[in-house]
Amino acid sequence: MIGVAEEGCSGEVGMASVRSCTCSPSSSSFFLRKAPSPVRFKLKFRFKINALFGDWGLGNRKNSLSFSSNHQNQFTFNLTDTETVRVSVLSSISDVSAKEWDACAVDATGPNSFNPFLSHAFLSALEHSASAVRETGWMPHHIVVKDQTNNILAVVPLYLKTHSYGEFVFDHSWANAYHSYGYKYYPKLQSCVPFTPVTGSRILLRNTSFKDQIFDIIVSAMKDITANSQLSSLHVTFPSENEWLKLTQKGFLPRIGMQYHWKNRNYKNFDDFLMDMKQSKRKNIRQERKKISAQNLIMKRLRGHEIKARHWDSFYTFYRNTTDNKWGTAHLTREFFHELGSKMGDNVLLVVAEEGDELVAGALNLIGGDTLFGRLWGCLPRSYYPSLHFEACYYQAIEAAIELNLKKVEAGAQGEHKIQRGYLPVTTYSCHYLIDEEFREAIQDFLEREASQVKLVIKLLHDSGPFKEGIV
């Protein structure tokens, strides 16, 4: 949970460790088995040099959706010789009842691993608050699959996008490459939870005897929409590993990334966790925590009815301070936070720091079935409290996870400083379906090189971790 351009506690995936690696290919790698076209040859070079390191690309965040969706928005597929299913594209999640959507989400994740970001309440809050809507470059194109009696068998959070912001999987250099050859990269289709780098199922299937067939039907429908609408590409970001593997088998290009998660090894309390750390790391954490009381700060963890409107107003100020001071964009509106509190209060854990009667900082977490998800952080403008970020985002989250008997804390994207505080690197996934064959080949070449470097970085970081030998 670190505050950089895109978000407070998590930050957009920057792959800082990977940036320190060498990604220049050997000269032999430029020789292809068949004579390259000018597009293909130049793309291979460009992706090798730019894609890891920046080149932030095109696309506008706001008021830029000039694309007119004239593709077919309903498909019929044969499920058996006598049964058919209907796949529809909806322009708002409000067109599906919360009960039906959430039934798909619960079946997809399992009740014990429920992911709150996949809930109707969270996704509808993004739409109703004007955070993820057409005007901000996020046009909802949600997929719904129904049988002949109108029972919903599956749903997919899907968006038509005119930029690559708020995704936490970088493809800006891909957009630049398309543009440099006179192609349009935007709009594109993206299955994700907006502004949320949290792994979870994306194709949300009810538990039926033919759910594997429904999965295949949805993938075919999304590919058809992409092709028929003359879009450049279809992306599925932060899917489950199982989905990622299945989509890779269906022609999607696989990509991996990295985050930092804390694992609950059946700890009884925070000190129990510290005993698994190397002595120097344990000492450092204790010193950091002592700084909080030395600054006369009081930490509180609020849930449900304990979170009042004033807390949300203060947190929005903190959030804006983070985004405004770190070259970011405030994707989320004030209304989003209030709606989140009213709709999902029991799933919200808001950590606040008080100095006297004043709220000075906060960290927003959501509680899932077995995971605490750290999302956003911020503090008062022009304020600095040593170690408060670590306390609010990491140590309070660990204490809460132990107290709530949760298996892990996902602290979001970026931030090698998390490692020394007990958060270890894990692999994240995305997959990408590109229509143009030559661009696809160039991007595939880059992704293979990127994956080898990400795997190496994860191994190196694990090997230099903060835990005693034998603790994994």
From TrEMBL:
This is Uncharacterized protein LOC106768174 isoform X1. Pfam families: FemAB_like. The gene is LOC106768174. Gene3D superfamilies: 3.40.630.30. InterPro entries: Acyl_CoA_acyltransferase, FemAB-like. It comes from Vigna radiata var. radiata (Mung bean). It comes from the Eukaryota.
